[in-house]
UniProtKB/TrEMBL annotation:
Residues 1-21 form the signal peptide. Residues 52-165 form the Serine aminopeptidase S33 domain. Keywords: Hydrolase, Signal. It comes from Robiginitalea marina. GO terms for molecular function: hydrolase activity. This is Alpha/beta fold hydrolase. InterPro entries: AB_hydrolase_Est10 (IPR053145), AB_hydrolase_fold (IPR029058), Hydrolase_4 (IPR022742).
Amino acid sequence: MRNLFGMILLVILLVAPLSQADAQESNTIKTEVVEFTSDGVDLRGTIYTPDNPHAAVVIVHGSGQERRMGGFATLLAETGITVLTYDKRGVGESGGTYAGPEVGTNNIDSGNLALLAKDARAAVDLLNQQDPNTPIGLVGFSQAGWIIPIAAKENPLVEFMVLFSCPTITTLEQLRFQFYTDGNPDFWDTHTESDTREHIRNDPDRYQFASTDPKDALSTLSIPGLWLFGERDIQIPVKLCIEQINALKVQGKPFEYALFPTLGHNTAFANDAAPVAISIHWIKQIALNINKKSRKN
């Protein structure tokens, strides 16, 4: 698997961001507006279904008041991946209450992260009802790095996960790093890795709340996972996260990552299309492996 992933990575980087065959694999995409319930709240979203899907994914939001992501869902569906994307709770047409600093609440409180993980789990259940024969995964961004492992741990229907610029450190550690970088895009030009790690270890916390460590859930999972990082990220300490992923790999976890030296936190929506292209190739290969295994059984 690791050798295969390396070959895929090399081919994509040397040949093209998205091959024409991938981009135009499905000419017809069916869209369906759906509603589902999570923790007593009705959430509203859209399912994008291509002809003959290889895999299916639920999109898990990052922080902020995020609505369903139609553009990204369409891009994936055009390559043969069914997508369910929904309005975050308390946002758009979804019920419930949004939590976030814009409204004076803590959106990375452990209770809120657990609630958002319930929403993702419920979305997976709905997608499985629509097509129980297609492998289902979770695809998310940034804050989803804390949500996806919890959802995957608690819903056995989740068979893989893709995480764009997602932390493996705790929520409190992430805040220490984020306050340290202070939004400076040139942070890594003037700071070293060792100084940054020292700050993350020892900086006093500005807020006191129960911390969430995604490694608690990741250490229990046996499903494939792919992280995509930008080396110049100033929201999460990428090299520390990679070190933690490598430690999980040593334990036998089927986790992979790709690092892009010129990119920052916005790996999924940067001008460089390679991160998304790699994720699509990876999802298809994982789905193929899952289907082969199920046929043998």
